[in-house]
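Chain X:
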Amino acid sequence: MPKNFFQYYKKYLIPYLDITNRIAVVGLLLVSLMSLLSLIYLIGFDVDLQHREMIHRLLDRLPYAFMVLGVLRFFSLNESGGKRIKLRVSIVYGLLFVILLPALFNNGNSLIWNSIRKFLMNDYYQAIVLTMVSILEISGAIIGIMKRRVNPSKVFVISFLMVILIGMGLLLMPNATYNRLSLIDALFVSTSAVCVTGLSPVDVATTFTPLGLAIICLLMQIGGLGLMTLTSFFAVFFMGNRSFYNQMILSDIFGSNQYGSLFGTLLRIMGFTAIIETIGFVCIWLSIHGKIGMTLTEELGYALFHSVSAFCNAGFSTVSSGLGTPAFMGNNALLLTMSALIMLGSIGFPILENFMKVIVFYLKTLFRWIFSRNSRLRRSPHLWNLNSKIVIISTFGLVLLGTLCFLIFEWSKLSGGVLDHIVQSFFMSVSPRTAGFGFYDMNSYTVPSLIVLVFLMWIGGGSQSTAGGVKVNTFAVSVINLWSVVRERSKVEVLGRELSAGSVNRANATIFMSIFVIGISVFMLVLLEPTINFKELFFEAMAALTTVGMGFGITEQLGTTSRLLVIILMFVGRIGLITLMLGLVKRNDELDVDFPKEDIIIT
């Protein structure tokens, strides 16, 4: 009898269960979109009382739709599928069920139950739960797309494009600005925020309401981490989607060869971000509390916005003058905090993970030395990988070089004593790589300082970070390769390791493409804006491609075509030239063939 039952089950029921599962998944996606759009409409638009009540009635019914479709999907999955969403069903849909409790049990008259009902029926609580459930369902849908064997570079490019377009729509909402933005300006600001650039055709501080600033802050956070990082985190943490192909996709996006540890890497990236930005938020607030004439709410908003902006290397500020006011220029604690956030964001998540590995190792060694009889300290010669060594040494050298140059070339324009001069020069050296916070008028810089700025902007931060530029790794590999060529070495070696030919070729290609794109973009801007000074146009193009945002303030003078060109440069700069090319050009899967070799005369 059981044998016949399973035969009938496999033959007749499984096809229908698959159809039911697909209907439930599509239904959950549509309900999620409906939920988010309804909440956005309530928050971002001036809605009259009649329409507001109608939307609230819709939102009150959406938890029922989520529960029905969620249960339907759960029972239509096979055994492995049920295990994959077990955690999500038990946590997230448990919160949804809690929302429905007041409607299911509305006869209680006790004081405690009435207080609980009042909390559960609160609009803010319901909005938070619906938003969380909707984001999880949409994340699952995005991760599901990755199963279709798509090009990882295309996934990366399309994800940024989607966020930019969504951000543009949000910034166009009436409640996001004091005065309505044009379509091109909304697209420009959204692209600048997602691509963590900082350029803007409007004054951010006076144009956007607190809601608009919150949207920009959210776009900066998504742009700094990457949409795939966030969606993968939600999908993995709540859905348990650990397919091998998804790991391969993420490994290509994150630049990692360790497939098994990728999902742990996701958790660490989110953890690093949350901890660093929280500490930065506290330090910034303490450094400005009671010193700049803001209320407590304004101080907290300033600290949160600038902590996210600094760590994500975005360069946006809620103050029109940026950090160029005397109150900020003389605040060494603020400048050092901002510098630390910028450097931690620009150094790259692989380096932060290596830092954590080293710290944990030495803490364990110290613990064993204190509590065990073995007095010998353990040593490990391979704590730092080659990538970390190159990035740390190069970053230290570039920051030191920039600090010394600005001390020499800008000494007379810096304020305060010797210590203040050093701190300000240090911040001026860190900010161009690649946050771009305004410090003082760009027209005040000497010519040597501008050359140093361009050099630092062009190099940028580390790979797999929130920074732009050609990246420190790329520049260092090219310099090492140049030194090997000068010494007529057939192999590229550094710190006792040989660099792979693929790394060297990729570095050289990135530098060539960067110079080529800068030249073409500056040439086009000169043709489009003949009345604007060449130096200003050059910095605008450089700032856009390197996602720095330091310019001469000519963005609002550019025409529509020029702004579109700058938008494209910001997008290309954040995505990466090689990544963009990999997404556009079809990969060649043919086997390599060795042809006869000949030398080309190169002098």
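Chain Y:
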Amino acid sequence: MAIQRALISVSDKTGLDVFAKGLHELGVELISTGGTCKFLRELGLPVIEISDYTGAPELFDGRVKTLHPMVHGGLLQCRDNEEHQKQAQEHGIKPIDLVCVNLYPFEQTVARPEVTLKEAIEKIDIGGPSMLRSAAKNYAFVTVVSDPVDYERVLDEMRTHKGDTTLKTRESLAVKVFLRTSSYDSAISNFLGNQSAERTGGNYSICLPLCQKLRYGDNPHQAASLYGNFSDIFHQLQGKELSYTNVLDIEGAATLISQFTPPTVAILKHTNPCGVGQDDEDLRAAWQKAFETDTQAPFGGVIVMNRPMTESLARVISSIFTDVIIAPDFEPEARALLLKKKNCRIIRMDTKAWEKASALPVVRSAPGGLMVMDRDVTPLGLDNLEGKVVTKRVPTEEELMAMRFTWKVVKQVHSNAIVFGTADRTLGIGAGQMSRVDSVRIAVWKAGQAGLSLKGSVIASDAMFPFADGLQAAIDAGATACIQPGGSIRDEEVIKAADEAGIAMVCTGTRHFLH
């Protein structure tokens, strides 16, 4: 049966003009509320105000307007149930065949650092979720639209199905509604739970739609799935389907590259940076600096950059076996060259979407539950480095620039982490060792393997030197300056070793462990 009556009440009016006009052209009667009603009338569309439809005024500053039997009775009555239809006729309740509702922006409201509890509570939608749930429960007869991306789909179906939608579509839209309302309720409970953590102990819940089935987990015998809006941030242009480890690598690469402003290229393996290079103008030159740090790392690794990939860079990279390439965009000529790498996963990264996503906490599984942690986005301690010098010798301007560069890199290396570098490139990286001195030795060895001199380099350590041996190994290798958090009970011993060698050292007071 053709859709005859629609109730529209939206906070986000994106695309509503086209959708509402399409419904009107299909002969659908429009009912609406408040600001949405005003919006539709300004479009010149005939629309019935909700209070005129129900015969009841909006109450309590609009808090009560759709919580009425004329609305929910119109949504929940079963069209094939004689008793339902009899009751509807007795009480004058007409069927509502389509509901278009999106909710007050609660998540955006509470994302503001300065938001108050009162402001948050006012953005808790009551009528919207109620209408969505009523319509979704009765999807056998009612079409429920909760996302503007579905407007065109619904209109197309109505035009090709004599004014109606298919049961399959109504079912998928209903599932989408329950995912949305569950996510909405989770956002509310998480915010209020944190606000009252001292009284209630807090709580955390999460509900995300399936994004895609992954190729496999850590190993081929482990099944894995990806949930959420990952594909809105990272759009795969070509290549094999993603695996669990690919997603981890992509996240690590995005976190690393987002810290740099000048043209920068980074190479990662198992989420660890293997080489990072920077150049004021040429992305190809930045790549060369990153590649020279470890010429073996790109094979089967991840390459990421913060500028659109150029043809000249694509020509170099296209000859190397690479698992994933990530860029904010790709020049047409570069894209054409990369088409030959059929198995390589080519990913376009939406930097604005990443900025929003990186503001969300890190969620990790734990035995019997989850751990939730603030994301370590910004490299801390880089302000006023000159005021944090702990040695007799003050670092040169060049050494300070190198400190800022290597500190951003070491932050993304798994602990114990050591990075040797200059102001625009890495020279040696040691990661994930049980002792810090071993990480230093590995970084020195890697630089030697690459034929790179560490003379005059800066060393960055993600956490304190517990003993002087790690710093001494760096000094012996040629480092002339060091940036580290400090905080060891043997700081005096470490500083003394630096002074005896005549190197400059800065203690940021902040560590950047990454496990």
